[in-house]
Amino acid sequence: MLTRQYVKADVDGQIGRIRLNRPERYNALNRTMIREIVKVMEQFDQDETVAVIVLSGEGKSFSAGADIDEMVDATPISMELLDPFADWDRISRLHKPLIAAVHGFVLGGGFELALACDLIYATPETQFGFPEVGLGVMPGAGGTQRLTRRIGRTRALEWLWTGERMLAPEAERLGIINRVFASEQFEQDVMTRAHQIAAQPPISVRLIKDAVDKAGDLSLQDGMDHERRNFYLLFGTADQTEGMQAFLEKRQPTFKGN
Ligand code: CAA
């Protein structure tokens, strides 16, 4: 049973879809909800029939951030003991492509959840922002790190200090999100993109993600050494034989995922 209290989930072809399902609170993320999201993501990551995971929100918005009701009485010690962000860290250990398909408000922890995904697609009127400063806190689930890596220190500081919202076309221009798709056919366009990635040889897709992830952590030479090992590894796959053979025979390849 994939669908849970705060999350709806299903499989469409090779796409594992997860929908945040707390629309009456703008999908505000409480701890149970995060745990459910990560659990379903991990199930899809292990499911051989799923190639790509798409995360979206039910109702008017993707997510208005962490559940403020749940945090209002927290203390440093309760936070330390609960370590609520430990669950979030598991997202970056997933191997399969993770797409955030967002609309409406994408604020605070909602923005951080989207930034934890590999690709972000949004409708034109989507509003992104980090309002935490106005609550007397700051992002705690990776916002200062992931935003800064995407847009640099000065731009990140301005967004984080003012708490201002940015519309999707601006976020696209700055390279925070991948693409804006028209609202009328948003789901369809996202699914077309997801299926396009799902049709690629899965071990290549997996090892590309693994190598790209190293780019942020390793020196250029160490990163290139890592890339090279992944490249050599792919010559042990049937999909490499098929892909290159199909090119030489001027036909479309049929990938089997091994
Ligand atoms: N936590 C808890 N409840 C929330 C919420 C949140 N983050 N966001 C919205 N809600 C609730 C509201 O309290 C309200 O509940 P009631 O109907 O019981 O009053 C309901 O959702 C609808 O919200 P509004 O009436 O406020 O709707 P609106 O259309 O006037 O405004 C909004 C929408 C702009 C998203 C506004 O609700 C808002 O600013 N929400 C808070 C955004 C925020 O500050 N997010 C950061 C959270 S902290 C964080 O995320 C830390 C981190 O790094 C992990």
Structure notes:
The protein is of the alpha/beta class. The chain has two domains: 7-198, 2-enoyl-CoA Hydratase, Chain A, domain 1, CATH 3.90.226; 202-248, Lyase 2-enoyl-coa Hydratase, Chain  A, domain 2, CATH 1.10.12.10. Helices cover 45% and strands 15% of the residues. The chain contains twelve helices and nine strands. The strands form two sheets. Strands 1-2-3-4-6-9 form a six-stranded mixed β-sheet, sandwiched between helices. It has a three-stranded mixed β-sheet with strand order 5-7-8. Helix 6 crosses helix 7 and helix 10 (202-215) runs antiparallel to helix 11 (220-233). The radius of gyration is 19 Å and the shape is globular. The mean pLDDT is 97. The structure holds acetoacetyl-coenzyme A (CAA).
Q: What kind of assembly state do the chains in view correspond to? A: single chain
Strand order of the largest sheet: 1-2-3-4-6-9
State the helix count.
Answer: 12
Say which molecules are bound, naming each kind only once.
acetoacetyl-coenzyme A
Rg, Cα atoms, Å: 19 Å
Taking the alpha carbons of the first and last residues, their distance comes to 28 Å
Strand content: 5-15%
Return the string of H and E elements.
EEHEHHHEEHEEHHEHEHHHH
Mean pLDDT, rounded to whole units?
97
Major β-sheet annotation: 6 strands, mixed
Low-confidence stretches: none
Helix/strand-derived category reads alpha/beta
Number of domains: 2
The strand count comes to: 9
Which range best describes the helical content: under 10%, 10-25%, 25-40%, 40-55%, 55-70% or over 70%? 40-55%
CATH class of the largest domain: Alpha Beta
The CATH architecture of the largest domain can be given as Alpha-Beta Complex
